[in-house]
């Protein structure tokens, strides 16, 4: 079994997805957690005993036509002012093609994308990508809540 996960570019999504990746890997399931290079670099290290099951996948951050709308190195909401989040959403939408290619190359069994509030097209696009590659178990969005 192989699960591919793509959290929205906010650490309130990325960190819980990383934690979920660890929990899934503890069950012996391979997980690919996808984000952009800077976001992957800021994640904690995977537990050594699970490193063979957790793959952190870097998709290149899209180059925007107008490079002045997002500061260099801004790949998550923590890197920008609130007024610029709309541009981060546009950049995130541009990850669809490399994400689709990764799915085509790896043939996962399950895709989990956290994008309900992030980008307009992702829930429909992730379902279409899953359908195109005959991935029967899929989720367009997910909510993760922690408990004490």
Layout of helices and strands:
Elements: E1 2-6, H1 11-26, E2 30-35, H2 37-41, E3 54-58, H3 85-93, H4 96-106, E4 110-113, H5 122-132, E5 137-139
Parallel strand pairs: 1-2, 1-4, 2-3, 4-5
Any overview of this molecule?
With 148 residues, this protein is an alpha/beta fold. The chain is built from five helices and five strands, in the order E-H-E-H-E-H-H-E-H-E. The protein has a five-stranded parallel beta sheet with strand order 3-2-1-4-5, sandwiched between helices. It is globular, with a radius of gyration of 15 Å.
Helix content: 25-40%
Decide which structural class fits the backbone. Answer: alpha/beta
Shape: globular
Rg, rounded, reads 15 Å
Summed up, what is this model?
The protein is α/β, with parallel strands linked by helices and 148 residues long. The protein contains five helices and five strands, in the order E-H-E-H-E-H-H-E-H-E. The chain has helices at 11-26, 37-41, 85-93, 96-106, 122-132, and strands at 2-6, 30-35, 54-58, 110-113, 137-139.
List keywords for this structure.
alpha/beta; five-stranded parallel sheet; single chain; 5 strands; globular; 148 residues
């Amino acid at each position: 079994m192989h699960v591919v996960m793509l959290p929205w570019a906010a650490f309130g999504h990325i960190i819980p997805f990383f934690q979920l990746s660890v929990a899934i890997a503890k069950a012996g399931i391979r997980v690919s957690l996808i984000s952009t290079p800077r976001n992957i670099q800021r994640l904690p290290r995977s537990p050594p005993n699970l490193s063979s099951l957790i793959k952190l996948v870097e998709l290149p951050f899209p180059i925007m036509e107008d490079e002045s709308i997002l500061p260099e190195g801004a790949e998550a909401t923590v890197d920008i002012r609130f007024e610029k989040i709309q541009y981060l959403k546009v950049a995130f939408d541009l990850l669809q093609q490399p994400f689709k290619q990764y799915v085509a190359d790896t043939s996962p069994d399950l895709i989990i994308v956290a994008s309900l509030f992030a980008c307009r097209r992702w829930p429909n696009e992730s379902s279409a990508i899953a359908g195109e590659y005959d991935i029967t178990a899929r989720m367009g969005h997910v909510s993760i809540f922690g408990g004490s």
